[in-house]
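Structure in, sequence out. Go:
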């Protein structure tokens, strides 16, 4: 994480790249903002500890929104849920890292989140806690491989070296977590509105 986060500068950096930033003090404020932006639209959710911890799926379901999230699906239905999430009105997820110059950096194993953020629904909402903010692309990748991939591998019971040691080994096995690395310099043309809700609290992995 950047030693001193200038949220005003971060917001300007995101805006200059055509993202739609909003800065919030708490996760509850960001949750209310996400629900406001979504309204009555259908929502697809990418794998996200941030969304899980904020209980956003439960809030959406309580509001009557249609929600597609593979984390809520049975094992045999997960692929169908991932596919359906890409066809909903809004795609909701977090990002593995956010650079102070406004770039979103992510590493995926399956690639559904990459598809959702790049070429999925016309509207995307990313929620990022302050722990995701880093000063450079190198710091972003280092953060992901140290703090995001190992615990995600453990959560999914993958037999990866990082799950056992907490360190990236650039493994070449089928359970590898780091199959897709992508940097969003700006929203892609298919995405009509890309919201980035930054929270001044630690959230997710």
């Amino acid at each position: 994480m950047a030693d001193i986060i200038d949220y005003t500068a971060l917001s300007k950096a995101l805006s200059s790249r055509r993202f739609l930033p909003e800065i919030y003090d708490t996760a509850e404020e960001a949750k209310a903002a996400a629900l406001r932006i979504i309204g009555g639209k259908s929502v697809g959710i990418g794998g996200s500890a941030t969304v899980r911890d904020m209980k956003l799926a439960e809030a959406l379901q309580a509001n009557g929104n249609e929600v597609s999230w593979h984390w809520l699906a049975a094992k045999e239905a997960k692929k169908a849920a991932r596919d359906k999430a890409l066809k909903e009105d809004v795609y909701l997820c977090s990002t593995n890292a956010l650079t102070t110059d406004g770039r979103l950096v992510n590493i995926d194993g399956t690639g559904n989140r990459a598809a959702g953020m790049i070429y999925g629904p016309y509207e995307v909402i990313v929620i990022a806690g302050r722990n995701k903010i880093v000063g450079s692309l190198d710091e972003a990748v280092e953060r992901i491989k140290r703090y995001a991939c190992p615990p995600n591998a453990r959560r999914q019971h993958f037999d990866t070296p990082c799950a056992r040691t907490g360190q990236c080994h650039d493994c070449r096995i089928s359970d590898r977590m780091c199959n897709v690395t992508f940097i969003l310099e700006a929203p892609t043309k298919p995405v009509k509105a890309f919201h980035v809700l930054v929270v001044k609290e630690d959230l997710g992995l």
